[in-house]
Specification:
heterodimer; A: alpha/beta; TIM Barrel; eight-stranded parallel beta sheet; two-stranded antiparallel ribbon; 15 helices; B: mainly beta; Rieske Iron-sulfur Protein; four-stranded antiparallel beta sheet; three-stranded antiparallel beta sheet; 0% helix; globular
Chain lengths: 374, 132
Protein backbone atom coordinates (compact mmCIF):
# COMPACT_ATOMS: atom_id res chain seq x y z
CA UNK A 1 0.00 0.00 0.00
CA UNK A 2 1.40 3.39 -0.96
CA UNK A 3 2.19 5.75 1.79
CA UNK A 4 -0.25 8.63 2.05
CA UNK A 5 1.22 11.89 0.84
CA UNK A 6 -0.86 13.80 3.37
CA UNK A 7 -0.11 13.94 7.04
CA UNK A 8 -3.13 14.82 9.10
CA UNK A 9 -2.12 17.56 11.50
CA UNK A 10 -5.58 17.80 13.02
CA UNK A 11 -7.82 20.83 13.02
CA UNK A 12 -7.44 24.55 13.30
CA UNK A 13 -10.03 27.25 13.79
CA UNK A 14 -10.27 30.01 11.21
CA UNK A 15 -12.24 33.19 11.54
CA UNK A 16 -15.51 33.45 9.67
CA UNK A 17 -15.47 36.45 7.32
CA UNK A 18 -18.39 36.07 4.95
CA UNK A 19 -21.87 34.64 5.49
CA UNK A 20 -23.87 34.35 2.28
CA UNK A 21 -27.55 34.69 3.10
CA UNK A 22 -28.97 33.65 -0.27
CA UNK A 23 -27.76 30.66 -2.30
CA UNK A 24 -29.90 28.45 -4.53
CA UNK A 25 -29.03 24.75 -4.76
CA UNK A 26 -30.70 22.51 -7.29
CA UNK A 27 -31.25 18.78 -7.61
CA UNK A 28 -29.00 17.11 -10.18
CA UNK A 29 -32.12 15.91 -11.94
CA UNK A 30 -35.82 16.03 -11.44
CA UNK A 31 -35.80 12.35 -10.50
CA UNK A 32 -33.89 13.24 -7.33
CA UNK A 33 -36.81 15.40 -6.27
CA UNK A 34 -39.63 13.32 -7.67
CA UNK A 35 -38.73 10.21 -5.73
CA UNK A 36 -39.43 12.15 -2.54
CA UNK A 37 -42.78 13.57 -3.59
CA UNK A 38 -45.72 11.92 -1.81
CA UNK A 39 -48.55 10.31 -3.76
CA UNK A 40 -50.68 10.98 -5.68
CA UNK A 41 -48.43 13.75 -6.90
CA UNK A 42 -45.48 11.50 -7.62
CA UNK A 43 -47.40 9.44 -10.12
CA UNK A 44 -49.33 12.23 -11.76
CA UNK A 45 -48.21 13.74 -15.03
CA UNK A 46 -45.44 16.23 -14.20
CA UNK A 47 -43.01 18.27 -16.17
CA UNK A 48 -39.86 16.23 -15.71
CA UNK A 49 -37.18 18.85 -15.93
CA UNK A 50 -36.20 21.01 -13.01
CA UNK A 51 -34.75 23.88 -14.88
CA UNK A 52 -37.07 24.31 -17.76
CA UNK A 53 -39.92 24.07 -15.35
CA UNK A 54 -38.17 26.58 -13.14
CA UNK A 55 -38.18 29.26 -15.79
CA UNK A 56 -41.71 30.53 -16.24
CA UNK A 57 -42.47 31.76 -19.74
CA UNK A 58 -44.27 34.78 -18.38
CA UNK A 59 -41.16 36.77 -17.54
CA UNK A 60 -37.88 35.29 -18.68
CA UNK A 61 -34.59 36.10 -16.99
CA UNK A 62 -31.31 36.17 -18.94
CA UNK A 63 -29.67 32.77 -19.29
CA UNK A 64 -32.72 31.13 -17.68
CA UNK A 65 -31.71 33.06 -14.58
CA UNK A 66 -28.39 31.18 -14.31
CA UNK A 67 -24.80 32.34 -14.46
CA UNK A 68 -23.45 30.81 -17.64
CA UNK A 69 -20.13 30.00 -15.99
CA UNK A 70 -21.77 28.18 -13.09
CA UNK A 71 -22.72 25.01 -14.96
CA UNK A 72 -20.74 22.11 -13.44
CA UNK A 73 -18.27 20.54 -15.89
CA UNK A 74 -19.63 17.12 -14.94
CA UNK A 75 -23.14 18.09 -15.99
CA UNK A 76 -26.35 19.07 -14.27
CA UNK A 77 -27.77 22.50 -13.54
CA UNK A 78 -25.84 25.22 -11.69
CA UNK A 79 -25.40 24.56 -7.97
CA UNK A 80 -26.30 20.89 -8.26
CA UNK A 81 -22.75 19.54 -7.97
CA UNK A 82 -21.48 20.13 -4.42
CA UNK A 83 -17.80 19.95 -5.38
CA UNK A 84 -18.14 22.57 -8.10
CA UNK A 85 -20.35 24.75 -5.90
CA UNK A 86 -17.71 24.62 -3.17
CA UNK A 87 -15.07 25.67 -5.67
CA UNK A 88 -17.03 28.66 -6.90
CA UNK A 89 -18.61 29.68 -3.62
CA UNK A 90 -16.09 28.79 -0.94
CA UNK A 91 -12.83 28.99 -2.82
CA UNK A 92 -13.42 31.59 -5.55
CA UNK A 93 -15.83 33.85 -3.66
CA UNK A 94 -14.50 33.31 -0.16
CA UNK A 95 -17.84 32.46 1.45
CA UNK A 96 -17.64 30.76 4.85
CA UNK A 97 -21.28 29.89 5.52
CA UNK A 98 -24.13 29.74 3.01
CA UNK A 99 -27.87 29.78 3.64
CA UNK A 100 -29.56 27.62 1.03
CA UNK A 101 -32.96 28.54 -0.38
CA UNK A 102 -34.07 25.93 -2.93
CA UNK A 103 -36.25 27.40 -5.65
CA UNK A 104 -37.39 24.08 -7.01
CA UNK A 105 -41.01 24.68 -6.13
CA UNK A 106 -42.99 27.15 -8.17
CA UNK A 107 -46.23 28.23 -6.57
CA UNK A 108 -49.10 26.40 -8.23
CA UNK A 109 -52.82 27.00 -7.84
CA UNK A 110 -53.48 23.76 -5.97
CA UNK A 111 -52.06 24.19 -2.45
CA UNK A 112 -51.94 20.46 -1.73
CA UNK A 113 -49.85 20.01 -4.85
CA UNK A 114 -47.54 22.82 -3.83
CA UNK A 115 -47.29 21.49 -0.29
CA UNK A 116 -46.34 18.04 -1.62
CA UNK A 117 -43.46 19.43 -3.67
CA UNK A 118 -42.42 21.59 -0.71
CA UNK A 119 -42.24 18.48 1.45
CA UNK A 120 -40.16 16.72 -1.19
CA UNK A 121 -37.83 19.69 -1.47
CA UNK A 122 -37.30 19.80 2.29
CA UNK A 123 -36.57 16.06 2.42
CA UNK A 124 -34.19 16.39 -0.51
CA UNK A 125 -32.33 19.34 1.03
CA UNK A 126 -32.10 17.61 4.41
CA UNK A 127 -30.70 14.44 2.80
CA UNK A 128 -28.20 16.14 0.49
CA UNK A 129 -26.91 19.66 1.08
CA UNK A 130 -27.67 19.67 4.80
CA UNK A 131 -26.18 16.28 5.56
CA UNK A 132 -24.45 14.20 2.88
CA UNK A 133 -22.85 17.31 1.32
CA UNK A 134 -22.42 19.07 4.64
CA UNK A 135 -19.43 17.34 6.21
CA UNK A 136 -17.84 20.75 6.64
CA UNK A 137 -21.02 22.02 8.38
CA UNK A 138 -21.06 25.22 6.35
CA UNK A 139 -24.56 24.97 4.91
CA UNK A 140 -27.85 25.94 6.53
CA UNK A 141 -31.24 25.72 4.85
CA UNK A 142 -34.64 27.32 4.43
CA UNK A 143 -37.81 25.25 4.74
CA UNK A 144 -40.24 25.47 1.84
CA UNK A 145 -43.90 25.67 2.81
CA UNK A 146 -47.09 26.44 0.94
CA UNK A 147 -48.57 29.66 2.31
CA UNK A 148 -51.84 29.15 0.41
CA UNK A 149 -52.96 26.51 2.88
CA UNK A 150 -51.64 27.58 6.28
CA UNK A 151 -52.53 24.30 8.03
CA UNK A 152 -50.28 22.42 5.63
CA UNK A 153 -47.54 24.98 6.15
CA UNK A 154 -47.77 24.67 9.93
CA UNK A 155 -47.64 20.89 9.68
CA UNK A 156 -44.50 21.08 7.56
CA UNK A 157 -42.85 23.51 9.98
CA UNK A 158 -43.65 21.26 12.94
CA UNK A 159 -42.28 18.26 11.03
CA UNK A 160 -38.83 19.83 10.80
CA UNK A 161 -38.74 21.85 14.01
CA UNK A 162 -35.56 21.17 15.91
CA UNK A 163 -33.60 20.09 12.85
CA UNK A 164 -30.12 21.51 13.43
CA UNK A 165 -29.61 22.83 9.91
CA UNK A 166 -32.94 24.37 8.93
CA UNK A 167 -32.67 27.97 10.08
CA UNK A 168 -35.66 29.71 8.53
CA UNK A 169 -39.00 29.26 6.76
CA UNK A 170 -39.38 30.57 3.23
CA UNK A 171 -42.56 32.18 1.97
CA UNK A 172 -43.10 33.17 -1.64
CA UNK A 173 -44.57 36.69 -1.78
CA UNK A 174 -46.93 36.23 -4.75
CA UNK A 175 -49.98 35.71 -2.59
CA UNK A 176 -53.61 36.77 -2.60
CA UNK A 177 -53.23 38.86 0.51
CA UNK A 178 -50.32 40.48 2.34
CA UNK A 179 -48.63 38.42 5.04
CA UNK A 180 -49.76 40.51 8.00
CA UNK A 181 -53.35 39.38 7.62
CA UNK A 182 -54.85 36.86 10.04
CA UNK A 183 -55.01 33.80 7.72
CA UNK A 184 -51.19 33.78 7.78
CA UNK A 185 -50.86 34.11 11.52
CA UNK A 186 -50.69 30.36 12.22
CA UNK A 187 -47.63 30.19 9.94
CA UNK A 188 -46.01 33.16 11.65
CA UNK A 189 -46.83 31.69 15.06
CA UNK A 190 -45.34 28.31 14.21
CA UNK A 191 -42.18 29.92 12.87
CA UNK A 192 -41.82 32.17 15.90
CA UNK A 193 -42.51 29.33 18.32
CA UNK A 194 -39.72 27.29 16.75
CA UNK A 195 -37.28 30.21 16.60
CA UNK A 196 -37.25 30.20 12.84
CA UNK A 197 -37.20 33.51 10.99
CA UNK A 198 -39.50 33.87 8.01
CA UNK A 199 -37.62 34.61 4.80
CA UNK A 200 -39.60 36.17 1.99
CA UNK A 201 -38.06 35.29 -1.37
CA UNK A 202 -39.47 35.69 -4.87
CA UNK A 203 -40.13 32.67 -7.04
CA UNK A 204 -41.96 33.37 -10.26
CA UNK A 205 -45.05 31.43 -11.19
CA UNK A 206 -47.36 32.09 -14.08
CA UNK A 207 -50.64 33.67 -13.27
CA UNK A 208 -52.40 36.00 -10.94
CA UNK A 209 -49.62 36.09 -8.41
CA UNK A 210 -47.47 38.19 -10.71
CA UNK A 211 -49.69 41.24 -10.41
CA UNK A 212 -48.18 44.62 -9.69
CA UNK A 213 -50.30 47.21 -7.88
CA UNK A 214 -51.59 48.15 -11.34
CA UNK A 215 -51.90 44.81 -13.11
CA UNK A 216 -49.38 42.86 -15.15
CA UNK A 217 -46.05 44.24 -16.31
CA UNK A 218 -44.95 43.79 -19.93
CA UNK A 219 -41.31 42.95 -19.35
CA UNK A 220 -39.11 40.95 -17.04
CA UNK A 221 -37.08 44.08 -16.38
CA UNK A 222 -40.19 45.80 -14.99
CA UNK A 223 -41.22 42.79 -13.02
CA UNK A 224 -37.76 42.39 -11.50
CA UNK A 225 -37.60 46.08 -10.57
CA UNK A 226 -40.89 45.79 -8.75
CA UNK A 227 -39.88 43.12 -6.23
CA UNK A 228 -39.32 46.04 -3.88
CA UNK A 229 -42.93 47.14 -4.14
CA UNK A 230 -44.08 43.63 -3.46
CA UNK A 231 -41.97 43.46 -0.33
CA UNK A 232 -42.99 46.95 0.76
CA UNK A 233 -46.60 45.78 0.66
CA UNK A 234 -45.90 42.77 2.84
CA UNK A 235 -43.74 44.75 5.25
CA UNK A 236 -46.36 47.46 5.69
CA UNK A 237 -48.97 44.81 6.35
CA UNK A 238 -46.82 42.98 8.89
CA UNK A 239 -46.28 46.23 10.76
CA UNK A 240 -49.82 47.57 10.79
CA UNK A 241 -51.49 44.23 11.50
CA UNK A 242 -49.53 44.25 14.75
CA UNK A 243 -47.72 41.02 13.92
CA UNK A 244 -44.63 42.06 15.87
CA UNK A 245 -46.75 42.70 18.95
CA UNK A 246 -48.59 39.39 18.61
CA UNK A 247 -45.40 37.42 17.93
CA UNK A 248 -42.68 39.33 19.75
CA UNK A 249 -39.97 36.83 18.88
CA UNK A 250 -40.75 36.72 15.15
CA UNK A 251 -38.05 37.76 12.71
CA UNK A 252 -38.61 38.38 9.01
CA UNK A 253 -36.00 38.54 6.25
CA UNK A 254 -36.69 40.09 2.87
CA UNK A 255 -34.38 38.46 0.35
CA UNK A 256 -33.36 39.67 -3.10
CA UNK A 257 -35.77 42.59 -3.16
CA UNK A 258 -33.33 45.42 -2.61
CA UNK A 259 -32.85 47.49 0.49
CA UNK A 260 -32.51 51.21 -0.10
CA UNK A 261 -36.24 51.60 -0.72
CA UNK A 262 -36.95 51.22 2.98
CA UNK A 263 -35.64 54.72 3.72
CA UNK A 264 -38.47 56.79 2.26
CA UNK A 265 -40.98 54.08 3.09
CA UNK A 266 -40.15 54.14 6.81
CA UNK A 267 -40.19 57.95 6.90
CA UNK A 268 -43.67 57.79 5.50
CA UNK A 269 -44.85 54.99 7.78
CA UNK A 270 -43.45 56.68 10.89
CA UNK A 271 -45.23 59.91 9.95
CA UNK A 272 -48.51 58.23 9.23
CA UNK A 273 -48.30 56.22 12.41
CA UNK A 274 -47.95 59.43 14.42
CA UNK A 275 -51.10 60.76 12.74
CA UNK A 276 -53.30 57.70 12.34
CA UNK A 277 -52.24 55.19 14.95
CA UNK A 278 -55.71 55.10 16.48
CA UNK A 279 -56.82 53.04 13.49
CA UNK A 280 -54.44 50.29 14.61
CA UNK A 281 -53.90 50.74 18.34
CA UNK A 282 -52.11 47.41 18.64
CA UNK A 283 -49.19 49.04 16.86
CA UNK A 284 -47.66 50.65 19.92
CA UNK A 285 -44.25 51.51 18.55
CA UNK A 286 -42.93 53.45 15.60
CA UNK A 287 -42.79 51.29 12.44
CA UNK A 288 -39.07 51.88 12.03
CA UNK A 289 -38.51 50.50 15.52
CA UNK A 290 -40.25 47.26 14.62
CA UNK A 291 -38.06 47.02 11.54
CA UNK A 292 -34.94 47.56 13.62
CA UNK A 293 -35.87 44.77 16.00
CA UNK A 294 -37.59 42.27 13.73
CA UNK A 295 -36.69 42.71 10.06
CA UNK A 296 -33.57 42.08 7.99
CA UNK A 297 -32.73 42.40 4.31
CA UNK A 298 -30.24 40.69 2.02
CA UNK A 299 -27.93 42.83 -0.06
CA UNK A 300 -28.08 41.29 -3.53
CA UNK A 301 -28.79 42.74 -6.08
CA UNK A 302 -26.92 45.70 -4.76
CA UNK A 303 -28.08 49.07 -5.98
CA UNK A 304 -25.27 50.73 -7.89
CA UNK A 305 -25.73 54.45 -8.25
CA UNK A 306 -23.03 55.96 -10.44
CA UNK A 307 -21.73 57.88 -7.44
CA UNK A 308 -20.69 55.25 -4.89
CA UNK A 309 -20.79 57.87 -2.14
CA UNK A 310 -24.55 58.06 -2.56
CA UNK A 311 -24.96 54.42 -1.71
CA UNK A 312 -22.85 54.80 1.39
CA UNK A 313 -24.95 57.74 2.60
CA UNK A 314 -28.13 55.79 1.96
CA UNK A 315 -26.75 52.81 3.85
CA UNK A 316 -26.01 55.02 6.82
CA UNK A 317 -29.49 56.48 6.75
CA UNK A 318 -31.04 53.05 6.32
CA UNK A 319 -29.18 51.59 9.29
CA UNK A 320 -27.59 48.95 7.06
CA UNK A 321 -25.17 48.30 9.90
CA UNK A 322 -27.97 46.47 11.69
CA UNK A 323 -30.43 45.55 8.98
CA UNK A 324 -28.43 44.31 6.03
CA UNK A 325 -26.99 40.85 5.41
CA UNK A 326 -24.66 40.14 2.53
CA UNK A 327 -25.76 37.70 -0.16
CA UNK A 328 -24.52 36.51 -3.54
CA UNK A 329 -27.62 34.86 -5.01
CA UNK A 330 -25.28 32.18 -6.41
CA UNK A 331 -25.69 30.75 -9.06
CA UNK A 332 -27.98 33.35 -10.60
CA UNK A 333 -27.24 35.66 -13.49
CA UNK A 334 -27.09 38.81 -11.35
CA UNK A 335 -24.75 37.32 -8.76
CA UNK A 336 -22.96 39.74 -6.44
CA UNK A 337 -19.31 38.89 -5.86
CA UNK A 338 -18.14 39.62 -2.28
CA UNK A 339 -14.91 41.29 -3.40
CA UNK A 340 -16.62 43.73 -5.70
CA UNK A 341 -19.57 44.50 -3.47
CA UNK A 342 -17.86 44.74 -0.08
CA UNK A 343 -15.90 47.83 -1.00
CA UNK A 344 -19.16 49.66 -1.66
CA UNK A 345 -20.30 49.18 1.94
CA UNK A 346 -19.20 51.94 4.33
CA UNK A 347 -16.00 50.69 5.94
CA UNK A 348 -17.25 50.88 9.51
CA UNK A 349 -20.21 48.57 8.77
CA UNK A 350 -18.57 46.18 6.33
CA UNK A 351 -18.02 43.31 8.71
CA UNK A 352 -21.49 43.60 10.20
CA UNK A 353 -23.01 43.33 6.73
CA UNK A 354 -20.67 40.62 5.48
CA UNK A 355 -20.94 38.48 8.58
CA UNK A 356 -22.15 39.67 11.96
CA UNK A 357 -25.82 40.38 11.21
CA UNK A 358 -26.31 36.95 9.63
CA UNK A 359 -24.31 35.28 12.39
CA UNK A 360 -26.57 36.84 14.99
CA UNK A 361 -29.78 35.93 13.17
CA UNK A 362 -28.86 32.34 12.29
CA UNK A 363 -26.75 31.50 15.32
CA UNK A 364 -23.53 30.84 13.44
CA UNK A 365 -20.17 30.66 15.17
CA UNK A 366 -17.41 33.20 14.73
CA UNK A 367 -14.87 30.61 13.72
CA UNK A 368 -15.01 27.34 11.89
CA UNK A 369 -12.93 24.23 11.90
CA UNK A 370 -10.60 23.54 9.05
CA UNK A 371 -8.66 20.36 8.69
CA UNK A 372 -4.98 20.89 8.34
CA UNK A 373 -2.85 18.63 6.26
CA UNK A 374 0.62 18.74 4.81
CA UNK B 1 5.78 42.91 -26.49
CA UNK B 2 4.21 39.47 -26.30
CA UNK B 3 3.13 37.42 -29.26
CA UNK B 4 0.99 34.37 -28.66
CA UNK B 5 0.05 31.86 -31.27
CA UNK B 6 -3.54 31.19 -30.46
CA UNK B 7 -3.93 28.38 -32.99
CA UNK B 8 -4.40 27.71 -36.66
CA UNK B 9 -7.19 29.51 -38.48
CA UNK B 10 -8.88 26.19 -38.97
CA UNK B 11 -8.97 25.77 -35.17
CA UNK B 12 -10.87 29.02 -34.82
CA UNK B 13 -13.70 29.09 -37.33
CA UNK B 14 -16.32 31.86 -37.38
CA UNK B 15 -18.42 31.82 -34.21
CA UNK B 16 -15.75 30.15 -32.11
CA UNK B 17 -13.54 31.49 -29.35
CA UNK B 18 -10.53 30.39 -27.36
CA UNK B 19 -9.26 31.53 -23.98
CA UNK B 20 -5.56 31.83 -23.41
CA UNK B 21 -3.48 32.67 -20.38
CA UNK B 22 -1.34 35.77 -20.78
CA UNK B 23 0.81 36.25 -17.74
CA UNK B 24 -1.54 36.80 -14.82
CA UNK B 25 -4.65 37.36 -16.86
CA UNK B 26 -6.74 35.65 -19.49
CA UNK B 27 -7.65 36.84 -22.96
CA UNK B 28 -10.55 35.59 -25.04
CA UNK B 29 -9.92 35.45 -28.79
CA UNK B 30 -13.07 35.47 -30.93
CA UNK B 31 -13.75 34.87 -34.60
CA UNK B 32 -16.60 37.13 -35.62
CA UNK B 33 -17.64 36.56 -39.23
CA UNK B 34 -14.11 35.69 -40.25
CA UNK B 35 -12.29 38.45 -38.38
CA UNK B 36 -10.42 37.93 -35.12
CA UNK B 37 -10.72 40.02 -32.00
CA UNK B 38 -9.38 39.69 -28.47
CA UNK B 39 -10.79 40.89 -25.17
CA UNK B 40 -9.52 40.80 -21.62
CA UNK B 41 -11.45 38.19 -19.67
CA UNK B 42 -12.40 40.48 -16.81
CA UNK B 43 -15.61 42.47 -17.04
CA UNK B 44 -15.14 46.14 -16.12
CA UNK B 45 -18.49 46.11 -14.31
CA UNK B 46 -17.86 43.66 -11.46
CA UNK B 47 -14.92 41.49 -12.50
CA UNK B 48 -16.84 38.57 -14.01
CA UNK B 49 -15.38 36.23 -16.68
CA UNK B 50 -16.66 38.22 -19.63
CA UNK B 51 -15.24 35.96 -22.35
CA UNK B 52 -17.19 32.96 -21.04
CA UNK B 53 -20.45 34.69 -21.84
CA UNK B 54 -22.86 33.89 -24.62
CA UNK B 55 -21.87 35.16 -28.07
CA UNK B 56 -25.10 36.54 -29.34
CA UNK B 57 -26.84 39.43 -31.04
CA UNK B 58 -28.99 42.16 -29.70
CA UNK B 59 -32.19 43.99 -30.41
CA UNK B 60 -33.25 47.20 -32.06
CA UNK B 61 -36.49 48.97 -31.55
CA UNK B 62 -38.59 49.18 -34.69
CA UNK B 63 -41.65 50.97 -33.36
CA UNK B 64 -44.23 50.25 -30.66
CA UNK B 65 -43.57 46.72 -29.27
CA UNK B 66 -41.81 45.81 -32.51
CA UNK B 67 -38.30 44.67 -31.83
CA UNK B 68 -35.90 43.16 -34.36
CA UNK B 69 -32.92 40.91 -33.73
CA UNK B 70 -29.65 42.22 -35.12
CA UNK B 71 -25.88 41.73 -35.01
CA UNK B 72 -25.98 38.03 -34.28
CA UNK B 73 -22.48 36.85 -33.33
CA UNK B 74 -21.07 40.32 -32.76
CA UNK B 75 -21.98 40.67 -29.07
CA UNK B 76 -20.72 38.88 -25.97
CA UNK B 77 -22.96 39.02 -22.93
CA UNK B 78 -21.19 38.79 -19.58
CA UNK B 79 -22.26 35.72 -17.58
CA UNK B 80 -22.50 37.95 -14.50
CA UNK B 81 -25.27 40.56 -14.96
CA UNK B 82 -25.59 40.20 -18.77
CA UNK B 83 -23.82 43.43 -19.81
CA UNK B 84 -23.56 43.41 -23.61
CA UNK B 85 -20.20 44.17 -25.22
CA UNK B 86 -19.45 44.70 -28.89
CA UNK B 87 -16.67 42.17 -29.43
CA UNK B 88 -14.91 44.23 -32.10
CA UNK B 89 -14.53 47.39 -30.03
CA UNK B 90 -14.77 46.13 -26.44
CA UNK B 91 -17.43 48.75 -25.67
CA UNK B 92 -20.80 48.14 -24.09
CA UNK B 93 -23.77 48.79 -26.29
CA UNK B 94 -25.73 50.27 -23.38
CA UNK B 95 -25.17 53.14 -21.01
CA UNK B 96 -23.28 53.68 -18.81
CA UNK B 97 -20.48 52.94 -21.23
CA UNK B 98 -17.90 50.50 -20.03
CA UNK B 99 -14.99 49.24 -22.06
CA UNK B 100 -12.90 46.13 -21.76
CA UNK B 101 -9.33 46.07 -22.95
CA UNK B 102 -8.88 44.83 -26.51
CA UNK B 103 -5.78 43.43 -28.13
CA UNK B 104 -4.65 43.27 -31.76
CA UNK B 105 -4.94 39.91 -33.46
CA UNK B 106 -3.30 39.15 -36.78
CA UNK B 107 -3.11 36.21 -39.11
CA UNK B 108 0.32 35.05 -40.28
CA UNK B 109 0.87 31.99 -42.41
CA UNK B 110 -2.47 30.56 -41.40
CA UNK B 111 -1.85 31.11 -37.69
CA UNK B 112 -3.83 33.41 -35.44
CA UNK B 113 -1.46 35.60 -33.44
CA UNK B 114 -2.35 37.69 -30.41
CA UNK B 115 -0.22 40.70 -29.48
CA UNK B 116 -0.05 42.04 -25.98
CA UNK B 117 2.38 44.24 -24.16
CA UNK B 118 3.16 41.47 -21.71
CA UNK B 119 6.02 39.23 -22.73
CA UNK B 120 5.27 35.51 -22.53
CA UNK B 121 6.27 33.72 -19.35
CA UNK B 122 7.44 30.16 -19.14
CA UNK B 123 4.36 27.97 -18.86
CA UNK B 124 2.01 30.24 -20.82
CA UNK B 125 0.26 28.29 -23.51
CA UNK B 126 -2.84 28.48 -25.57
CA UNK B 127 -5.80 26.74 -23.87
CA UNK B 128 -8.81 25.11 -25.40
CA UNK B 129 -11.80 27.36 -25.17
CA UNK B 130 -14.14 26.95 -22.22
CA UNK B 131 -17.78 27.60 -22.76
CA UNK B 132 -17.85 28.02 -26.52
Amino acid sequence: MARSSHIDLGYTEVRVNVVDADVHPAPRSFAELRERVPEPWRSRNWPDQVFDAVETPTYVAPGKAQRRDAYPPSGGPPCSDPAFAEQQLFRDAGVDYAILLPLTVRPVPNPEHEAAVCAATNSWLADTWLSAYNGHDRYRGALRVCSGEPNLAVREIERWAGHPHFVEVMLVPYTRAPFGQPPYHPILAAAAKNNLPIVVHVNRAAGMGLLTPVGFASYFIEHHSLYSLLYATHLTSLIFEGVFEKFPTLKVVFAEGGFSWIVPLLWRLDNLWAELQSETPLVRRRPSEYVHDHVRFTSQPIEEPSDAGRLQRVFERADAANLLMFSTDYPHWDYDDPMHVARQFPAEMRERILRDNARALYGLPGTRRVRESA
Amino acid sequence: MGRYVVGRMSDLPPGSRRLIQVGRFEVGVFNVNGKYYALNNRCPHAGGPLCLGEVTGTTEDAGAYRVVWVRQGEIVSCPWHAWEFDIASGRTITEPTKTVRTYPVSVEDGQVVLETDTPPRAGDRSEQSRGA
